[in-house]
Structures are given as structure tokens and as C-alpha cells.
Amino acid sequence: MSDTLDPRSVVHQILADYRQMAARHHIALKEHCGIEGVVDGEFDEYEETRRITALEADEKLETFIQLLTDAFGLPDDRPVTVLGANTAQFQVTPGRLDDNARAAFTQGQCHALAHAVAEVTGWQTVVLAERECADGYDTCGMGNAVADGLCICQLSHVAAVRPRDGHLIVR
Fold it and tell me: What is the superkingdom listed in this entry's lineage (predicted)?
């Protein structure tokens, strides 16, 4: 999208998409409320609608961030904050492999490292998964399926695969 549109058009499209989604969510939630705006029906149905709209909003946000990044790029002259495991935050400068980037790659940003290696080399990436939830909180019953019956809490690592011998390139 950003290859054919200028950054201003990308921002306008994001705003239009967000407003459209917000209006749909408002209508969907309002169906569960009386004239005063208070939930007057089945509270569980209202909560399920809220959960579904929140998941869509989360996906849209990721898409919006990627579109903005593609249109404007990331600064290479100052750090940006990335999240790591257990809410850790790292200040990394795009394009610079320093101690902060190494810490981020080894503490929750393994997918970023795998993506960077794959982008430079053309190699495939692989997701390593546990049979049970990898963390202490089982979220599989909350609609957090990733694909093929795999739950997000079962994902433990992402790595690039070296094609000549199948070795995994990990932190």
C-alpha cells in the first residue's frame, strides 16, 4: 500500500479505516444496551461482543503500525522502544546491533531476530511450540488460537532455519 501511496494518503486511509471500525463496534455493542446505554440483556453476550471487537481493534492496530512504519520508516538516528518478555522494554536503534538490541533479541524479541535474518538471507523461519502452555497461565480457552489448533501460550520461540543443514539460528 505505501509503495503506491504517499505517507499523507496512508494516514488518511488509516483514519478512515479506524472510524469505520469504531462505528461498527459502537453499533455492535449498542445492540446489547437499552435506551439509557446500560446493558439490558444478556451480559455474557455483551462481553463476548466486547472481546471480539477488542481482538479486531488489536489486529487493526498492528496493521496500522506496520503501514505507518512502511510509509515513514523507523528513525535510524534515535532509539525506539520495543517490548520484551514479561513487559520488559528495550531502547533499540533500528539498524544498529548493540548491547540493547542483543538484550531485546534474547529477552522476548526472538521473532524480530528471526525476521531480520530471514529478510537478509531469504531463509525460512520456524515457530517452536510446547505441548502444553509455555507460561503459567493457560489462555487457550480464551480464543487465542494461532493456527491449526495451536494456542498462543504454546509458542515458545521463533528462529531462522539455515537451509544447508537445517540448523536453527537463534539468539
Answer: Bacteria
Of 114, 152, 159, 160, which Cα lies nearest the Cα of 135?
152
Q: CA-to-CA distance for 130 and 153, rounded, in angstroms?
A: 9
pLDDT tens digits, one per residue of 112-167: 888 888 888 999 999 888 877 766 555 666 555 666 677 777 778 889 999 999 99
C-alpha distance across the termini of the chain, in Å = 32
Torsion angles phi and psi, residue 11, rounded to 5: -60, -45
Residue 75 CA to residue 98 CA, distance in Å, equals 16
For the chain, the maximum distance between any two Cα atoms, rounded to a whole number of angstroms, is 65
Per the DSSP assignment, residues forming a β-bridge with 128 are 157
Domain ranges of the chain: 1-73
What number of other Cβ atoms are within 10 A of residue 24's Cβ? 12
Closest C-alpha to 50, from 71, 29, 32: 29
* pTM, rounded to two decimals: 0.53
Q: Compute, in degrees rounded to 10, the torsion defined by CA atoms 76, 77, 78, 83.
A: 10
